[in-house]
Design goal:
about 725 residues, alpha/beta, eight-stranded mixed beta sheet, two-stranded antiparallel ribbon, about 55% helix, globular, 1,3-beta-D-glucan synthase activity
Length: about 725
Amino acid sequence: MRIGVKDYDWHELFPVVKSNAGAITAIWAPVILVYFMDAQIWYSVYCSLFGGVYGILSRLGEIRTLGMMRTRFESFPSAFNKRLVPLQAKESENGIKRLLFHQSFHKDSQIKMNGEVNFVLVWNQIIYSFREEDLISNREMDLMKMPVSSELFSGRIRWPVFLLANQLSTALSIATDFVGKDAQLLRKIKKDKCGYLAVTECYESLKYIIDILVVGDMERRVVSCIFNEIEESIRRSTFLEDLKISALPRVHEKCIELLELLVEGIEDNYSIVVLVVQDIFEIVTSDLMLNGSRVVASLLAQQEMEATEFFSSQIEAPLFASKHCLNFPMQDTDSLMDKIKRFLFLLTIKDKALDVPKNLKARRRITFFATSLFMDMPSAPNVRNMLSFSILTPHYKEEVKFSSKELHSSKQGVSINFYMKKIYPDEWKNFSERIGMDISNDLVDESYEEEIRKWASFRGQTLSRTVRGMMYYREAIKLQAFLDLAWNDGILQGYDTMWSENERLAAQVEALADMKFTHVVSCQVFGSQKSSGDPQAQDILDLMISYPSLRVAYVEEREEGRSHKTYSSILVKAVNGLDQEVYRIKLPGSPNIGEGKPENQNHAIIFTRGEALQAIDMNQDNYMEEAFKMRNILQELLRHRGRRPPTIIGIREHIFTGSVSSLAWFMSYQETSFVTIGQRLLANPLRVRFHYGHPDLFDRIFHLTRGGISKASKTINLSEDVFAGICYIS
């Protein structure tokens, strides 16, 4: 059979296509599909998606920027009171407390302080810790802290200045250009609550400072009459009719000039202060008040009633010209100067709230703390009722603190000191401001050498950084104990003055902190370092002196005879500048039969105390604001979410070296994805999470009775972490 087609062409499905992209896709598509069918890959994707959704539902990362924090700041005290403040004590307990504590702290008319007071004190302590870590400058500290006064007990809070920044200038601009009635102007200013608060606080502060500054009898009458006239205009809603608002900017400028002189407090400037006060009086009575003659008329009427020649002569004399009519220089008390500085900031500050603090680390920490206030967490118990816990930190021969030689020696052409200054330029500037060091030239006074060593060590992966961070737990417990025990008048005296004003309360706070917290650093070779004169031994001793509650455990090797050696685990503390032995436990032999790090933990775990144990690596850190949540975390060990309570509580870890390089940044995010987001699925709903990461918190009693938290079998158990979780299910 013959076909009548001589030239046969294959039929083309896609005759228009001139490339082979479709063929390549068809060939490689099965390969890609098989690759993505790998269960591990799909599991990782699912973990990330589930962890992200779970975090959103748990309100994690709800406040990510300072702008969001600014809009939510008003709700922080109530959220703090709900999550981090214990429930109110019963009346019977209050009666017992009145018998136990000092009489000045207990009056029958007093009531327990509310959550606003707690929040203000804790917030200020967090800001002070930022300053001690040189994350913020003195100016930023003044802008971020909140004043403590008796107004807090009535529920009135004065917000940080950085929230009220530029609000007064904005309100002045609105009032100067406004045309209408008082009620309309008031509604316009009240649209921004921070602006309204700034205006009212500035007026009250001006009235308070003038009342203290002016002491002359005639001058006080004039000032009182002026304020009464202004307040009467506000009450009658005739403020815009009785006052010429365009004169307010001039009053604003003169008030700034007066406050700057008051802050300086130089006695030779008395005549200048008099002139400034007279200028303010002249502007107010002549330009601002349309009926300024009412003040003089009122005083003249009062003069006729008193009918004294002395008073008549006083009116004829220029106001504020008398030598003793002004209280200048004013008394240099902390509370008064803080009010004057705060008022000056409200008048002069032009920075936007988003610019304070400038340090990125401070921003991240403060926003994370703000977010955590809205998370679901167990209620906080009183410090007396919270679970006690210990921290165990293994240390071998890693850096304790950078020596002067290490700081200034150049490795690969760059010294550690030079590198730290370039990586943290703002923190170096804040550090020099804090200690009063001049950094305008490269020559640094040798008296600052020890402070520079600490500053650089706190920014490296050193033991001193870890110990400082862990000791924030103790500081947080002490402040929380103070808030639990002190009453209103004790709060107003201040947490820092407790040590001198009420020694009995201070002793109780110290005792509670000692009962609830212990930090043991297992420096395995500390004994041999002491005997050999290693400088690291002195650095470890300096840490114990700086932090008296720190304990160091080490293994002592002692020769008895020619061929016999005895080994002991020893716990020491610092007493009078020397290390003093607390406990000694004789070991059956050398403890170094397994892996080094697990064995280092195993020999020292016996020296820990309490119901919980947190294992911390010597290159980890902690923050003051996170330490306040520790008693909430410990309550998780008592919550039954299944057949039995948990014995390991997972705690997220932040990699602080992520800013060093792009690779470190990638690894820090990988750690966050695996340790934080991925572990959420394992914890809930699967409930099969074992253990990963040293910030995790253990039920100490449970794990001590099951072989400890570390397995140190030689070669087999290279990782001591995961086997703590295996102990839980075995």
